[in-house]
Specification:
membrane; single chain; mainly alpha; about 75% helix; elongated
Length: about 70
């Protein structure tokens, strides 16, 4: 189990947040509701979705590396 208050827990949370927002960007109803704001608190979801879609290869590699680290090294 990864603790959220450790550095690797923050990395896991960030990667899962980016992947979730990028996935939700593909759903039309949620895209218009959740990701329509580009500024403010709700803009964090939009920015995470943009990071997830533009850097999808880097995010996928980071997820695989983090999964390997958690399963085998921690």
């Amino acid at each position: 189990m990864t603790n959220v208050y450790s550095f690797d827990g923050i990395l896991v949370f960030g990667l899962l947040f980016i992947c979730t927002c990028a996935y939700l960007k593909k759903v039309p109803r949620i895209n218009s509701w959740l990701l329509s704001e580009k500024k403010g608190v709700w803009g964090v979801f939009y920015k995470a979705a943009i990071i997830g879609t533009r850097l999808h290869i880097a995010v996928a590699i980071s997820c695989m590396v983090m999964a390997f680290y958690i399963v085998f090294l921690k």
